[in-house]
Structures are given as structure tokens and as C-alpha cells.
Amino acid sequence: MLFRRIYQFLIVYCLGLVGLLGIKQALGLSDYVIPGVSLILSTFGRVSGGYFLDVLNTLSVTIFGQIISIAMAFTVGILGRKSSWAGSFIKVMAYNIQAYPIVALAPIIFILLGDGFLSRLLIASMICYFPLLLSVLGVMAVPVKDIEHFYIATGRMRWQLEVKIRAFENLSKLTTVIAGSATLAMAGTIVAEFIAANAGIGYSIRIALYQSDLAGILTALFYIGIIISVYQGMLETLGELVKTKWSAPKGGELL
Amino acid sequence: MSVKPWVYRQWSAAILVIFVLFCVSPVRAEAIKLNYRLKWLFNTSVAGDILAADQGYFKAAGLDVTVKEGSPEKNAINELELGYADFGVASADQVIRALDKGADVVVLAQLFQVNPMQWIYRADRPEIKMLEDLKGRHIGITFGGNDETIMRTLLARAGLGEKDVRLSGVRFDFTPFLKKKVDVWPVYKNSQGVILADQLSREGEAVYFFNPSQFGVNFVANSIVTSGKMIQTHPERVKIFLKALLSAWEAAMDPLNEAQVLASVKKKDTQTPDDIQQKQLAATRQLIKPDKGIRIGVIDVGAWKQTETIMLNEHQIKGPVGIASRLIGPEGL
Known about the structure:
heterodimer; A: mainly alpha; MetI-like fold; 10 helices; B: alpha/beta; D-Maltodextrin-Binding Protein, domain 2; five-stranded mixed β-sheet
């Protein structure tokens, strides 16, 4: 799965690059608008070491941000799963907070928290959190009637059990969403770095943009793509492991 | 009932007369459509560009020019090459970088005779009278921006290394300067500089501006550019455009026209308070036309060559681009 992710990314990246070079040739554009192969390669050689470390820096924030957003989404999703007043209030509050575009809130965050690690972490979590929340709410708010009825009828139903049943029945959906949210967390971190941070690959892209260095931006995109593919592949593998462990026919444990 | 032949003749003659009048009428002459991409948002620092469109300078020259705002993401030179713009505003570093990468760009006129990119600092701190006075200061720079190139050149001239000063990356948020976390802050003197100076003066604080050109570093700022192809294929169009635009700039920088200029700017920049805009216009005047004898648009070839040398020394370009050969200037058309 991991290798498939990487070569799929490489195919997409190469197709995009060939497309760009095709446009360059067709329109007779200079290296300033679209860099040629030699400039891309020389830029790659010049900046790749620094950019690789920048992407790792961004990834570290991404991972923390994703963990926070998963925790937040599950907390809100579990609290808001009931059709009670409190549940509906939590859902409305969560939706309303998300109604503000993060880019509009980002300057306030940077003024209050500065342009360091915390701001990037918060913005990454905020961008990643909402799609996760929608999925978690979708899973947690729908009862698994066949199974839950038995526990309710026998008076053994507790909220922890309810959450476990619903999570187990939708495990495949949840693991897919969590793996997919990695790209959102990465995108969130890069957006934060691009807007105002002083580290990470988003910040390097901003500098490259100041200098109209498209070759530098293409190098950054390459590293972002590779690293996020590896990270997502690892999450998917982990998801498969969890599913196997929880699946009784494959020797896993029953709930 | 049959129509008599003379009726046909009369109608045919009338239609012919109307057709001839329609063809030769001056009203029929269509204005040439052009796109002009600025470097930054509409504000007082582009007063001449706003005036040219708003007060009919382009129209009077037979041009229908769409003046478009710029931003860090919108690059006039890219747009010239892609055909989205016919003319644009670019800074010298953008022009030199573009030439280094094979772009076909020429400079028609230099708008700012003094670079508005300067550094602001509080007057309660020692005045920077010599470059050596930068030692020990906490200086803000935009990493990757031309202020970084300028500051590194100044530091090199002063024989100061990174250990002698503290450099911090800055963005559009002034908070670190206002909170006194950063001592010397980069600003565009005629826009942000005015706002910051005004804000601090309300709190009883005076400011100084550190101007690199006073220390021999003349890094050229905004200039009007077009493509070499445009000059070759439509030299007359270029001439008409530039003449109209520079006339508008001359009018915009004339203190006698201040009210009219501010009214035109206000239509585009509705957010900035009137008193600030007035101060910004006065500050812009000093940078565009620092001396009454200077004709707006004149190219300071020496400053351009120095900019190229600085960029070479800072490894911003691979090799010399021969910038002098790409400077046309208003008198070269």
C-alpha cells in the first residue's frame, strides 16, 4: 500500500510536470514563467536538502495537529451524537465555528499566539477537524439498531458500549476518513506557514513566490507529495492492522 | 400598388449617405483596449495610475485601459508573457530576475526615484547616522523579499555579520514593532510608514526612517514595463500609453491638484482615512519627484546597474543580464 501510494504520486507529479513543460513549449514561454528541465534540476539540487527538512518540520506539526483534531472530532462527535438539547447545541456550535474561513481567522491567531509552533498547530487542527467531525457525527449519530436493541432490552447499554458498537460497525469508514484527513492536516499546516509562520515548507514556498521561483515551488511540491504519500500510506497500513485485529474471523478479538 | 423608381433611388441615396457618415464618423473610432497590471493594491502610492484611468488621460489618448490591482501572487512580467497584460509595474529585482531567466521585458519608465522600501524606528533609540550604528539592533526583514537583499548589502558595507545584529522575519502585521519586540522595521515609507508614524505620534512617540539610498545603496523600486515584442510590434501604441500615463503622474504629483487626486484615489481605496491618504500623497511626492526639476519616469541607469550588481553579489541571479540595454525610458521612444 505504501509503495503504491508513492508510485501513484510520482505518476501524478510527472504528468503535471509534463503538462507544464508542454504549455511552456507550446506558448514559447521563458524560464521565468515556467522553468525548463535544466533549471528545475539545478534548483532541485540547490534547495532539496533544505526543503526536505522543511517538509519534515511541517509534517511534525501535521501529525500533532491531526491527533488533536481526531481527539476533538471524537469528543464533539460523541457528545453531540444524542438528539438532546445539549447534543444539538454542541453540533450547532461546532458548525458555527467552522463557518469562518480559517484564512480569515489566521491573522487573529497569529497576532495572539505569534508566528511560532502553536499558531501552526491550531490552524492545522482547525482545517483538519471539520471533515473529521462530520464523519464522526455521521457514524455516532446513527444507531446500529439490530445490535443496540439487544443491549437496551437487557438493560446493559452504557454510552461507552454504544460508542464502541457504532465505531466497530463503521470501522472501515472511520479509518479511511482518518487516513484521508492527513492531507487536510498537511494542507492546513502549509496554509498557516504560508500566511505568517517563520518555518516549514509553506514558509519556503512563500519565499520562492517572492522571488518568482517556480522551480523552487515545484521542488517543494515534490517533497510535500512524497512525504504525505508515505505518511498516508503508513496510516492506511495501520488502519488495516486495526481492522484485522478487531475482526473476529481473522483471529482478532471480539468486542 | 407599384412603387415608382424615383422612390427607390431616393431611399438608396439616403441609405448610402447614412452608411458613409457612419463609417467616417469620429465616434466610430474604437479605443485600443489594453490591460495594465499594477504591482500592489490600489492606494495613494499608485495615484498617477488611478488618475490616468479616472480622469480620462487614457481615454483622451484613444486608449481603453483596464488598470488592475497587483499583489504578491500577481506578477506583471508573467502576465506580459502570457498575454494577460500589455503593460505592468514591476520592481527592479523582478525585472532583473526575469531577464536572468530569459524573459523578454523592457523598462519604459522608472516611477520611484527614491525607493519607498525603508526602515522605521523609534526616535527614542539612537539615530542611525552611519551604517555601523546598525550594530546590536534588532532588525526586521522579509526573508526572500528585496528588503532582505538591501539589508544584507548594507550590513556587508558596514562590515557587520549576522552575529552583530539580530535579524527577524516579518510579515504585514506590525505587532512586533508596536510591542517593541523588533527595533527597526521594514516599511514602504509612503504607505505603511505613514500609518505607523501616525499611530505612534498619537501615543507621543516620534519616529525616524532609515533610508538605504542615503548610505549609497540605490536599489530601484517600481517601474513601468512591457514586453520587447510589444515595443517591436506596436511602438506607437507604447508611446501613446506612456505619454498619457506619465502626464497623469505629473498631474497627480502636482500639489495644486491634491484635492482632485485624493478624490480619485478615494474611489478606489475607500478604507484609508482621508488624513492618512493626504499624508501618503505628500510622502509619495517626495519619492516620485524628489526635485522639481526631475521629470517623472526618468531612468536612473546607475541605480539599475547597482541593483544588478547587488543581486549578483547576493547570488540572486546566475550572471550579468546587461540591464542597461533593457532600459528604454520616456525619451528613448
